[in-house]
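User: Assemble these into one structure.

Assistant: Restating your components, then the assembled model:
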Amino acid sequence: MEDASNTYAPGDESPAASGSSYAAPTPAPDPDIGRRAFRQALIDARLLYASAVDGIYGRSGLFESIADGLNAAISKLGADQHAEVMRFPPAMPRRDFEASEYLKSFPQLAGTVHCFCGSDRDHHRLLARLEQGEEWADQQRPTDVVLAPAACYPVYPVVAARGPMSAEGMVVDVLTYCFRHEPSIDPARMQMFRQREYVRLGTAGQIVAFRQVWIERGRQLAGMLELPHEVDLANDPFFGRGGKIVADSQRELKLKFELLVPINDGAPPTACMSFNYHMDHFAHAWPLRTADGEPAHTGCVGFGIERLTLALLRHHGFELAKWPRRVRETLGGL
Ligand code: ATP
Ligand code: ZN
């Protein structure tokens, strides 16, 4: 096991590393001070490798071993779900992305893949622009590929193509890097990060029951990891003027809950898990049907692998050897 040489020393006001009771950090006049300090500590300790772009990082061996431990702990927690494991690349067909209506709600977050599709002459022009330090990307053409905005999106067209589900519906286990265009100095707000999810497809009753089970399991996991936490009602960052109305309705219908952990000193706590009920939204995008031919309902529980890793580093320090034994055991004996 590799250990980072530097240790991040959380301030005295930080929640006790051994407790799992929730202690929200005191709001600071500038929450970015705490975010920058934690980010710099992670970079100095070579846990994260910074790049020229905010939110795009390399991860160290130690960081990845914690991430692997989390994935193993989540698999153990979900062993009774008999989930079908699906692994997708961090991209999906543009056609499916359009069908999902993501652009209606979150155009500001989406990432599309563009490529050079020109002739020899266009290539020369491209190289000349590059050499002169001019803008060149506007010559790139859209491909049929977009970056996955959430781990569960590629699942729905695959399941829909199979025809109606059995009466039990199904659970799918996914893990992928996701892209969201939200550059930030907050180390917990990356542009590419991993979501591990269990996705439930079936009737409304099945989804609501699934979500309740996973809210409890999320709490249980945070407790075993000795992370201070609370579960709260939440909403997504819907775009534009109309977005406020959609966000309010999402809250009113109690469609999204989050498990929050304080990560950055002086900043609001960070959503490390989310518990979502999509109603029959995805059955309008794809022909997802229950056994009796009704539009299927869906929901998912999402674990932010990077955020959980950061929360562990924040609360237990940068030296794994000093972490509480129970936490290391939960992570598969790190
Ligand atoms: P936030 O409200 O903080 O933007 P979210 O509620 O939109 O996050 P979800 O769409 O529910 O996030 O994604 C599921 C999980 O993925 C989150 O609970 C979080 O742990 C993780 N996640 C989301 N956005 C990011 C990000 N920019 N960087 C790292 N992890 C993220
Ligand atoms: Zn999802």
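The first strand starts at residue 48 and ends at 49.
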